[in-house]
C-alpha cells in the first residue's frame, strides 16, 4: 500500500513553489549569506513603497549619495549597489554622460513602480541594462518584473546573466530554477538548484524543491538523498521525515528505512499525528494490521480530534478481523466529519461522509447485519447522488433482508447512473425472472449479454427466459451461442435439438442430437432422441440406435416396441430377435420388457416370431421361468402370456413417462442452474 498517492509535477511545482514575496525573502537571505545585494521585492507592487531618494540608484562609477532616506532604506533593500571599481561587472560605462542617463532611467523606473506602472518601469530598466549590461541588481530587477508579469521565458536570459556575474550568489540561480519550473521544464531546473544547495546548503526550500524535481524526473534515489539530508540536519522537520519515509517505502521499497524515519518524526514531535498515520499505513502495506491498529489507536488517544486517524484505524481493525472495533472507529470518524462553510466544502464533506457510510455498511454486512447495512447504504446513496456504488450495495443488502422491491429500484438507479455495471444488470435480470416478469428479464439479459458475451450461465438463464416467452427462435439462437462457447458440452446441443424438433425441423434436430451423442456416447436422452428421429425419418440406423438404448437402459419399456417396428421396416428382424434373446436371457429376468415384446407381436399377428424368441430365450437361459411359462402356454392364449399388460404406444407417439424421466420444470434462477429438456417421454440418464 503506497503511503501517499502519486503527485503530478504540476501539483509538486504548485505546492512547493513559493510566492514571489516569499521568493524575495529567500533571495534576500541567500544574498546576505554571500555578502551580495538583494534585488527588490516586486511580487506585490501595490505594497512596494516608492523610493524616496536617488540613493537607491547609483550609476556605475558614482559613489552613493549621503542623503539617502533611512526610513525608505528600512522598507526596501537597495536595488542597485555602487560599484567598487573592481571587476568587470562593476566597470563604468564609456563616459559620465552615460552614467547620468542610466540614473535618469532608473529614477523613472522607480517612479513608475510607485504609480503601479509596471510597463514603464520595465522599459526604463531595459534601458538601464543597455547602458550597464553587466550590472547584477538591474538584471535581477528585470527578471523579477518579467516573472511578476508571468513571462518566465523573458526572465531567463537576465537570470542567466546574473548567475554569470555573481558566481557565489545562490539568489539568481534559485530564481532561474523557478523560471524553468514555470515553463514546465524541470530537467533544466536541476542544474541551478544543485548549485543553490552547494552555495547555501542550509536552505530548506531550495533543497526540498530540488528533491521534488528529482522525483519528477524519475530519480527517486536522488530525491530520497535530499530529504534525508534535511531530516538529518533538522530533527524537528516533520515534513522532511515524512517525505523521506514515503520515498523509502513507495519508490525504493525499503520499508525498514521508512519505519526508521517515521519513528524519528514521532519521537521528535509526538503531538504531530502525521507520522503515526503514515506509520499505520506502512504497517498495513506490510500485512501487519495488528501493529497498524495499535499505532493508530495510540495516535487517536494523543490526538482525539484529528479526523484522518479514524478512517485509517477502521481499515487497520478491519484488516485485523476486528469488526466491532472497525465499526467503533468509523462511528468516531462520522462524529468528527468537518463542518462545511460553503457549497464547495459541502460537496467535499458529503463525499467524505458518504465514503465512511459505505465502509460502515460493508462492515455491517460482514457482521451479518443486513438491515443495519441497508440503512447505511441508503444514507450513503443520499449523500452521493451521482455514485452508483452505494445503490448497488443497497440492492445486495435489501436482497439479504428480503426486500426485493427496494433491491430492484436500487439496481435500476445504479444502472441509470452507470449502464455498464454488468453484475448489477445480471442481478436485476434474475430478480425480474424470479418475479416472472419475462419481458423485463429478457431486456436485462440482452443488455448483459452485450457486456459479458462469454457468460455461459447467464446465457443459459436467458435462453430459458426466451422459452417462457415462447420465443423459440430466440432461444435456439442463444443455445447456439452457448454451444459455440462450450463446444465439448452436449447440453446446448440437446436443447437446440429439442427446440428444432418442436419447430418440426426433424433433420436439423437429428443433426444436433447426433453431435451431442458424439460428445457423450452413453447419454440415454440423446440416444432416445436420435433413435426416435431416425425412426420418424425412416433412417436405416434406427434399429441399431434403439438397441444401444436398450443395452444401457433395459427398463425403458417403449424402446422395445420401437426397436421391433424399426427392425420390421429395415428388414433386420432376425438380428433384432437374436439381440433381444441375448438381452433377456442375461442375469435377472425382465418380465415387463418381455410383455411389451409379446404385445407387439400380438398386435402384428406374428405368433411364430414370438414363439421363436421365447424358445431362444429358454434355450439360452433354462432358468428363465417367465419365458418358459409363456412358451408353455403360448398355444392356449397369447394374452395369458403377458404378466403385466400395458398399452404400448407407437414409436414416436405419446408414451407414459418412464422411471426417472421428468416433465418440464419451472425456471429456477440459481447459481447452480440446471438444464431442463422440454417434456418428452425419455429414459432416465
Short description:
The chain is an all-alpha fold and 685 residues long. Helices cover 66% and strands 0% of the residues.
List keywords for this structure.
685 residues; mainly alpha; Serine Threonine Protein Phosphatase 5, Tetratricopeptide repeat; 34 helices
Write the SSE topology.
Elements: H1 9-16, H2 20-33, H3 70-75, H4 96-114, H5 118-131, H6 136-148, H7 152-165, H8 171-182, H9 186-199, H10 204-216, H11 220-233, H12 238-251, H13 255-268, H14 274-285, H15 289-302, H16 309-319, H17 323-335, H18 343-366, H19 370-383, H20 389-401, H21 404-417, H22 422-434, H23 438-451, H24 456-468, H25 472-485, H26 490-502, H27 506-519, H28 524-536, H29 542-552, H30 558-570, H31 573-584, H32 591-603, H33 607-620, H34 625-632
Helix pairs in contact: 1-10, 2-8, 4-5, 5-6, 6-7, 7-8, 8-9, 9-10, 10-11, 11-12, 12-13, 12-14, 13-14, 14-15, 14-16, 15-16, 16-17, 17-18, 18-19, 19-20, 20-21, 21-22, 22-23, 23-24, 24-25, 25-26, 26-27, 27-28, 28-29, 29-30, 30-32, 31-33, 33-34
Characterise the protein shown here:
With 685 residues, the protein is an all-alpha fold. The protein has a domain at 40-165: Alpha Horseshoe (Serine Threonine Protein Phosphatase 5, Tetratricopeptide repeat). It contains 34 helices and no strands. The chain has helices spanning 9-16, 20-33, 70-75, 96-114, 118-131, 136-148, 152-165, 171-182, 186-199, 204-216, 220-233, 238-251, 255-268, 274-285, 289-302, 309-319, 323-335, 343-366, 370-383, 389-401, 404-417, 422-434, 438-451, 456-468, 472-485, 490-502, 506-519, 524-536, 542-552, 558-570, 573-584, 591-603, 607-620, 625-632. Helix 12 packs parallel to helix 14 and helix 14 (274-285) runs antiparallel to helix 15. The longest helix is centred in the middle third of the chain and has 24 residues, at 343-366. Residues 635-646 have a biased composition (Polar residues).
Amino acid at each position: 500500500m503506497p503511503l501517499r498517492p502519486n503527485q503530478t509535477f504540476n501539483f509538486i511545482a504548485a505546492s512547493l513553489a513559493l510566492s514571489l514575496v516569499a521568493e524575495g525573502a529567500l533571495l534576500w537571505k541567500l544574498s546576505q549569506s554571500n555578502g551580495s545585494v538583494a534585488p527588490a521585492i516586486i511580487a506585490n507592487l501595490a505594497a512596494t513603497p516608492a523610493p524616496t531618494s536617488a540613493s537607491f540608484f547609483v550609476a556605475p562609477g558614482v559613489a552613493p549619495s549621503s542623503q539617502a532616506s533611512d526610513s525608505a532604506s528600512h522598507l526596501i533593500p537597495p536595488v542597485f549597489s555602487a560599484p567598487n571599481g573592481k571587476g568587470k561587472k562593476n566597470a563604468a560605462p564609456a563616459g559620465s554622460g552615460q552614467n547620468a542617463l542610466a540614473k535618469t532611467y532608473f529614477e523613472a523606473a522607480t517612479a513608475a513602480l510607485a504609480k503601479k506602472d509596471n510597463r514603464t518601469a520595465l522599459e526604463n530598466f531595459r534601458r538601464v541594462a543597455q547602458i550597464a549590461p553587466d550590472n547584477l541588481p538591474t538584471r535581477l530587477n528585470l527578471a523579477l518584473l518579467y516573472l511578476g508579469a508571468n513571462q518566465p521565458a523573458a526572465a531567463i536570459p537576465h537570470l542567466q546573466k546574473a548567475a554569470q556575474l555573481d558566481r557565489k550568489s545562490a539568489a539568481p540561480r534559485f530564481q532561474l530554477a523557478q523560471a524553468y519550473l514555470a515553463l514546465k521544464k524541470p530537467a533544466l531546473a536541476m542544474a541551478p538548484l544543485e548549485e543553490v544547495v552547494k552555495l547555501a546548503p542550509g536552505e530548506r526550500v531550495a533543497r526540498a524543491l530540488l528533491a521534488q524535481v528529482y522525483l519528477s524526473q524519475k530519480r527517486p534515489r536522488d530525491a530520497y538523498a535530499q530529504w534525508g539530508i534535511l531530516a538529518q540536519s533538522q530533527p524537528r522537520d516533520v515534513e522532511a521525515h515524512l517525505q523521506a519515509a514515503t520515498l523509502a517505502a513507495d519508490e525504493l521499497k525499503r520499508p525498514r528505512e521508512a519505519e526508521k524515519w517515521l519513528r524519528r518524526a514521532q519521537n521528535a514531535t509526538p503531538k504531530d499525528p502525521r507520522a503515526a498515520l503514515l506509520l499505520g499505513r506502512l504497517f498495513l502495506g506490510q500485512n501487519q494490521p495488528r501493529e497498524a491498529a495499535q499505532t493508530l489507536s495510540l495516535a487517536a488517544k494523543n490526538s482525539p480530534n484529528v479526523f484522518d486517524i479514524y478512517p485509517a484505524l477502521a481499515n487497520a481493525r478491519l484488516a485485523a478481523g476486528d469488526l466491532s472495533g472497525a465499526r467503533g472507529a468509523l462511528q468516531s470518524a462520522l462524529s468528527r466529519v468537518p463542518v462545511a462553510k460553503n457549497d464547495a466544502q459541502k460537496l467535499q464533506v458529503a463525499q467524505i461522509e458518504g465514503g465512511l457510510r459505505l465502509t460502515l455498511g460493508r462492515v455491517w454486512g460482514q457482521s451479518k447485519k443486513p438491515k443495519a447495512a441497508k440503512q447505511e447504504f441508503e444514507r450513503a446513496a443520499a449523500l452521493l447522488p451521482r455514485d452508483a456504488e452505494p445503490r448497488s450495495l443497497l440492492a445486495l443488502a435489501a436482497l439479504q433482508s428480503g426486500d426485493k422491491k427496494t433491491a430492484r429500484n436500487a439496481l435500476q438507479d445504479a444502472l441509470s447512473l452507470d449502464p455498464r455495471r454488468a453484475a448489477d444488470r445480471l442481478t436485476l435480470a434474475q430478480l425480474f425472472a424470479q418475479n416472472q416478469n419475462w419481458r423485463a428479464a429478457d431486456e436485462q439479459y440482452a443488455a448483459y449479454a452485450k457486456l459479458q458475451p462469454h457468460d455461459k450461465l447467464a446465457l443459459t438463464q436467458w435462453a430459458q427466459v426466451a422459452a417462457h416467452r415462447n420465443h423459440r427462435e430466440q432461444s435456439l439462437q442463444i443455445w447456439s451461442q452457448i454451444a459455440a462457447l462450450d463446444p465439448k458440452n452436449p447440453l446446448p446441443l440437446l436443447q437446440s435439438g429439442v427446440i428444432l424438433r418442436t419447430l418440426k425441423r426433424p433433420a436439423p434436430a437429428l443433426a444436433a442430437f447426433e453431435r451431442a451423442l458424439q460428445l457423450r456416447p452413453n447419454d440415454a436422452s440423446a440416444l432416445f432422441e436420435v433413435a426416435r428421429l431416425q425412426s420418424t425419418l425412416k433412417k436405416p440406423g434406427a434399429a441399431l440406435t434403439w438397441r444401444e438404448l436398450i443395452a444401457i437402459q433395459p427398463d425403458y419399456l417403449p424402446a422395445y416396441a420401437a426397436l421391433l417396428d424399426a427392425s420390421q421396416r429395415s428388414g433386420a428382424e432376425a438380428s433384432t430377435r437374436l439381440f433381444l434373446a441375448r438381452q433377456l436371457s442375461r442375469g435377472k429376468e425382465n418380465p415387463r420388457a418381455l410383455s411389451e415384446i409379446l404385445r407387439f407381436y400380438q398386435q402384428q399377428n406374428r405368433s411364430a416370431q414370438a414363439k421363436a424368441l421365447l424358445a431362444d430365450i429358454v434355450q439360452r437361459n433354462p432358468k428363465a421361468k417367465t419365458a418358459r411359462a409363456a412358451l408353455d402356454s403360448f398355444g392356449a392364449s397369447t394374452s395369458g402370456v403377458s404378466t403385466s399388460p400395458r398399452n404400448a404406444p407407437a414409436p414416436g407417439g405419446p408414451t407414459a413417462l418412464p422411471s426417472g424421466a421428468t416433465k418440464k420444470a419451472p425456471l429456477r434462477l440459481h447459481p447452480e442452474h440446471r438444464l431442463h429438456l422440454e417434456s418428452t417421454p425419455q429414459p432416465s440418464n
